[in-house]
Write a structure and sequence with these properties.
By secondary structure, the chain is mostly beta strands. The chain has seven helices and 30 strands. A six-stranded mixed β-sheet has the order 11-10-13-18-15-16, with no helix packed on it. A hairpin with a 7-residue loop joins strand 1 and strand 2.
Amino acid sequence: MTNINYPRRRFLEYTAFGTLLALLPKALLAENPVPNSKPSSTFNPDVEIDLVAQAAEVGIYRGAKTQVLQYQGKLIKGPQSTLKTLRGYLGPVMNFQQGQKVRINFYNQLAEPCITHWHGMHVPQAMDGHPMYAIARGERYVYEFEVKNPAGTNWYHSHTHELTGSQVYHGLAGLLIISDEAERKLELPSNEYDLPIVIQDRSFDRENQFRFSSNRHNRMRGFLGDTIMINGQSDHIIPVKTRAYRLRILNGSNARVYKLGWDDGTSVTAIGTDGGLLAKPQNMPYVMLAPAERVELWVDFSGRKTGSELVLQSLPYLGSHMAMGRGGMMGGGMGGMMGMMGGFGQDEVIDIVKFQIAEQVSDSPKLPTELIPMRRLTERDISQPDRTVPIAVGMRHMNFQLNGRTFEMQDYIESEKIPLNSIQRIKIFHESHGMGGGGGMMGMMMSMPHPIHLHGQQFQVLSRRQNNSDSSYDSVKKGFIDSGWKDTILLMPGEEIQILKPFNDYTGLFPYHCHILEHEDMSMMRNFYVA
């Protein structure tokens, strides 16, 4: 049995909601939201997986096992390399090929509703994991889609309305990796030299159990743990050889933003972002990585001595207001002291993962000067040049909002209606009103960074403009990678970002929301309606 407190009221609300939806005429809905519980007779999958969300116990530290929520996967059809099980609490790594037809039979064995979102994937509405499709314990949801994404690092996680933060925190997440022919021709580091790095912050009590609090303070700030976990494990040391590696890094934390850099000052070499490989490698002093963002790094350990170490750290950066506390002992003495991030900055170095040189080898691939050809979208590609779709981050009555509204399952307003097969200019910005003059709790909360995630196809960054002139932005501004395809972008205080996003192939409701999961659960989410 798990020690998580499952809210029966929400379970009943979801059950009633599903019953109501089944009675509504299809004409009233964007698409029929009745759960897709049976495989299609016309869909012939290349890959079929059974995926179960269930309570489990995992040995993370000595002593009592940690009670978690966990995805368990079983390959029914497809290459044996499709699923790779990790040692910790995370779900299996899924490895797909572009062009494959995939069926995933998702079974919910939790005591509360659940649905799974394929974060970063370009799939139809009914296959995307919209919260309206949440299923109850004992039910099945069948996902069927063709992999249209190019090679890249995506992930999957719970997307249950008001429960996403808790369910992801307790383990419902995993990596989803896509390969294609163009990537294979580059001969990038592969197999043991292609390393997944899922970064999450967690807190534990003295009985090795997760501590997760959804009090008002943590909901407003976002929950911050005091212990760094890598791939669902407490072991932060990875033995490597003196050659090049590819690191696939996901910020899987609920709220913490990382400023990733090497402890010896070596430049960070990025080769990919959320949506796949870049056109060419990009050297940077550090990389800012917000919740849900991914970055792929090339790191070459050639020339380093056996026994030496290179540490990937989260470096200090400034917030736009006072930090909300620092320091803090890790639960049960597990790992010593660690700098605690306030709501808006980080004033100490945090060690993320340590690479220990274990073996000398003589051969290593060379970093390509060119990666994947990429057509940059410009304003000439915008389907409606006179229109800019707004995503306004605001707050009213101590609730975060987008475009002046909170989430309702199938609600959308005129500005959220998107023509099918169009490319839209979208402006993401902070509202200037309703902040109480910029002071007090409301002003402080409105000065938070927000990672904004858009479901559906990936987008490109057109421009950034910072309206605040202060040193806090200077401490992070060199860490943004705006040259590739993305699905999540960190909106800093005082910043205005314009993106260009295609809405191709699929009609229906596609959410956009803050990926501080506590904010999402507070209904900082809306729908685009594509038709």
